[in-house]
Amino acid sequence: MAEDADPEPASRERVRARIVAVAADLLIQGGPGAVTTRAVTAAAGVQAPTIYRLFGDKAGLLDAVTEHGFATYLARKRPPKPGCDPVEALRAGWDLHIEFGLANPALYTLMYGHPRPGVTSPAAAAALDMLRAHVRSIATAGRLRLREEQAVQLLQASGSGTVLALLAVPQEQRDPHLSPLAREACIAAVTTGHTALPAPGVVGAATALRAELSSATALSEAERGVLAEWLDRIAAPTA
């Protein structure tokens, strides 16, 4: 029997989670077009007003499914471990990202294929923070060629672009070498080729210091802000 009353808070969360899981399954099986109010209510055992109360409309439901997708993705990701090779950790993270996208095409397209400027969900922000942690560990090791945020944006754009490009091609026609080629091109653009830099030069030194600047407690917040601006200018690649 379908539920038609507004549930209590704890029950409400269970109902919400069930609806999101059902909508995600419908998305995976049939794409966004399969996520209709009729299909979701039938599969979840609820009535349409429940969906409207919990999500507002279909767009709100799809936003919740997107959040669910990022949470599923993050459950498989791990921040870089202390002492590990930060570039190898980045390489492994890239491969995991590509694997997730190709295994979940409809969900991945919903997550990355329809960006809305200025709108970032908490789970999407957490995924980006995970990438920032990888880049920060490379910067701390003195092996980052670019400014941290520039490296993060390049890696995010290249990784998601690679997945979407592969998804646009029939599976049997996909080039298995495309992702490794894109990955290594990005790594070459973002990192130095050495495990350690005894004399990293002014750019490498500025990048490494910028990565650790938040721990410079001898400086005031304003002083750290000024120094951060100077270090970013030093680390920026010349035109």
Topology diagram in text:
Elements: H1 9-30, H2 37-44, H3 48-55, H4 58-76, H5 86-103, H6 105-112, H7 122-140, H8 148-167, H9 178-190, H10 201-211, H11 221-235
Helix pairs in contact: 1-2, 1-4, 3-4, 4-6, 4-7, 5-6, 5-7, 5-8, 5-9, 7-8, 7-10, 8-9, 10-11
How many distinct helices?
A: 11
Q: Please, what is the average pLDDT?
A: 85
- Beta-strand segment tally: 0
Question: How would you sum up the major sheet?
Answer: none
Tell me the strand percentage band.
Answer: under 5%
**Domain module count:** 2
Structural class: mainly alpha
Point out poorly predicted stretches.
Answer: 195-199
SSE pattern, N- to C-terminal:
HHHHHHHHHHH
First-last Cα distance: 66 Å
Task: Give the overall form.
Answer: globular
The portion of residues assigned to helices is 55-70%
Rg from Cα? 22 Å
Domain HTH tetR-type: 13-73
GO molecular function, one term: transcription cis-regulatory region binding
Keywords: DNA-binding
Protein name: TetR family transcriptional regulator
